[in-house]
Amino acid sequence: MGVNQHRKEAPKNVKCMIVTVSDSRTKATDKSGKLIIDLLKEAGYEVTDYQITKDEYTSIREMVRGADNRSDIEAIIFNGGTGITLRDTTYEAVSSMLDKTIPGFGELFRFLSFRDDIGAAAMLSRAVAGVRGKTAVFSIPGSSGAVKLATEQLIIPELTHVMREIYKNEATS
């Protein structure tokens, strides 16, 4: 069975939670979080929650754990905190919570960033995706350019397919 058949069998909608990881942004100043919400809604996805959390390892892990336990969230998309400064903990926190990783997500994100936008600096990105329980988890940089690239070119085109695979795994367990 090919990818086109998988996409036909995928759910038509996915309920998403957006989490901006920042020590300084508020809902009034969070352009990247709002951009993700707008792009998802334009593509027909449902945004059921939107939060801002500090760039703290424990807080980020609690967001993942909490989302996995909610029936109104099928996917959680983090933005911010993916760099290499001492304060950036999103990658470590999210990665530590995943049951399965989707290595191609980060690889493709860095490739597209390298090719289309930032050149060799793309190697500094620690975008990551995977699955926790029955929840898809994505973590992307917080710049508007990175958010637009990841959401439009990677997340939106494949999110229903990701959910089909998650639900397929659930049906066979």
Q: Which structural traits does this protein have?
A:
173 residues, alpha/beta, Molybdenum Cofactor Biosythetic Enzyme, Chain A, 6-stranded mixed sheet, 47% helix, 19% strand, MoCF_biosynth_CS, Molybdenum cofactor biosynthesis protein B, MoaB/Mog_dom
Descriptive notes:
By secondary structure, the protein is an alpha/beta fold. The protein has a single domain, classed as Molybdenum Cofactor Biosythetic Enzyme, Chain A (3-Layer(aba) Sandwich). It has six helices and six strands; from the N terminus they run αβαβαβαβαββα. The chain has a six-stranded mixed β-sheet, sandwiched between helices. α2 packs across α6. The longest helix is centred in the last third of the chain and has 29 residues. The protein is globular and about 45 Å long.
Uncertain runs are: none
Please tally the β strands and state the result.
6
Beta-strand content bin: 15-25%
Order of helices and strands: HEHEHEHEHEEH
CATH-wise, what's the superfamily? MoaB/Mog-like domain
Terminal Cα separation, in Å?
Answer: 20 Å
Mean pLDDT: 93
GO biological process, one term: Mo-molybdopterin cofactor biosynthetic process
Family: Belongs to the MoaB/Mog family.
Protein name: Molybdenum cofactor biosynthesis protein B
Organism: Texcoconibacillus texcoconensis
Summarize the SSE layout with pairings:
Elements: H1 3-9, E1 15-21, H2 31-42, E2 46-53, H3 57-68, E3 75-79, H4 90-95, E4 100-101, H5 103-118, E5 128-132, E6 135-140, H6 144-172
Parallel strand pairs: 1-2, 1-3, 3-6
Antiparallel strand pairs: 4-5, 5-6
Summarize the structure.
The chain is α/β, with parallel strands linked by helices.
